[in-house]
Amino acid sequence: xxxxxxxxxxxxxxxxxxxxFIAAEHATAAERARDGRFIAYDNGTVLDTxxxxxxAAYDNGGNISWxxxxxxxxxxxxxxxxxxxxxxxDELVGLYDHSIAAVNHLTSLITLxxxxxxxxxxxxxxxxxxCFDDGTRGWDPQSDAVYGRVLAVRLAK
Length: 157
Prior knowledge:
The chain has three helices and eight strands; from the N terminus they run H-E-E-E-E-H-H-E-E-E-E. The chain is of the alpha+beta class.
């Protein structure tokens, strides 16, 4: 019994040490730039201090269907985090800033290689997207990969 108890304690101690190591790794991301409410970190993430959402600093970089975009986010490991997801359309709309005089009206700390990333909402065989070039919401076939991009998001803790 003592040997089993000792093994259990050793396992618990190991898990705690690993957890502390992982937490420390995320805590060491250095700030590299600020743009109003946005803070960019050197681990490829951008924090929106207004919404407490953390965004990938870059989209996926190529054409992608909604199905693959969803999978991309679920498997994304930017900044060492594992809880990335597709953003809602409203979350994407929250990044839009018409006062920014650029092709895509959003902070320069986030890079989009095409203006209309996918959102998580679906209806039938269509999925939502939001276009940062003109501020419009849209719906396209989930299988459509032409010009589709994805920008992963997670709730910062």
